[in-house]
Amino acid sequence: LYSILRSEQRAVPPAGPAPWGCPCGSRRRVALRSPQVACKAASAVLVKTLRFVQNVPCFQELPLEEQLLLVRSCWAPLLLLGLAQERVHLETVESAEPSMLQRILTARQQGEQPPPRAPAPAPGRPHHGPHLPSAGDIQAIKGFLAKCWSLDISTKEYAYLKGTVLFNPDLPGLQCTQYIEGLQREAQQALNEHVRLIHRGDEARFAKLNVVLSLLRSINANVVAELFFRPIIGAVNMDDMLLEMLCAKL
């Protein structure tokens, strides 16, 4: 596990932080300024991430059904960790989609009924159908990237974080739960030992790195799919795409 989790990956310099905006702006719809460039970068990182996963011997020992279940559940956080490691900067612009207020005012001027507000999904429940990224969604992703860059996470630390994310024993339907739980524990122990060895003067670093994992859990996978893949390849069925990529020799 340790030898594979320490695989080298290239990085490029980060860009500056995004400016503060009005709190109400978190509901505005946004799009990538250069979707072709960003989507190409995300696709390359996803391929590299799945290649990394496939090269972990203990992952290869799992049945294919277990492998696919793990990857389906964690491809988005793994991708975001890869984007942070590669220092991929997101440049966004406001979408042309009218805001709720604009639609209400327009409807009133035309004597129509204002459109109903769609109910917000319950916390922790997945979104179904297209989820157009809002400024708040993008801010969460940018905040995660900025946190990673501020910690100057090393290649080994990224690898152990990925191992912690990949081997999630809490997924329903897993058969090798104890084995996967042991692998996650190994990744966390290796991260802790590495931090204590390399960052002896920073006793809080291990906790800070686990904050990175908590930030990942707050980002919806559908938002990641809509942001990075829908602008180029349209409606995305990530399950089909991941199955095809996982079964291919990347």
From TrEMBL:
Biological processes, Gene Ontology terms: adrenal gland development; male gonad development; negative regulation of transcription by RNA polymerase II; spermatogenesis
Entry's localization field: Cytoplasm; Nucleus
Matching InterPro entries: NHR-like_dom_sf, NR0B1/2, Nucl_hrmn_rcpt_lig-bd, Nuclear_hrmn_rcpt
Molecular functions (GO terms): nucleic acid binding; transcription corepressor activity
Location, primary (coarse class): cytoplasm
Keywords: Cytoplasm, Nucleus, Receptor, Repeat, Repressor, Transcription, Transcription regulation
Record-level GO cellular component terms: cytoplasm; nucleus
Coiled coil: none
PROSITE patterns cross-referenced by the UniProt entry: NR_LBD
Biased composition (Pro residues): 113-124
The NR LBD domain, residue ranges: 1-249
Tagged with keyword Transcription: yes
SUPFAM superfamilies: Nuclear receptor ligand-binding domain
UniProt-annotated stretches for the region Disordered: 108-132
PANTHER family: NUCLEAR RECEPTOR SUBFAMILY 0 GROUP B, NUCLEAR RECEPTOR SUBFAMILY 0 GROUP B MEMBER 1
Family: Belongs to the nuclear hormone receptor family. NR0 subfamily.
Function according to Swiss-Prot or TrEMBL: Nuclear receptor that lacks a DNA-binding domain and acts as a corepressor that inhibits the transcriptional activity of other nuclear receptors through heterodimeric interactions. Component of a cascade required for the development of the hypothalamic-pituitary-adrenal-gonadal axis. May also have a role in the development of the embryo and in the maintenance of embryonic stem cell pluripotency.
Description of how the protein assembles with itself and partners: Homodimer. Interacts with NR5A1, NR5A2, NR0B2 and with COPS2. Interacts with ESRRB; represses ESRRB activity at the GATA6 promoter.
Protein name, per record: Nuclear receptor subfamily 0 group B member 1
Organism: Dicaeum eximium
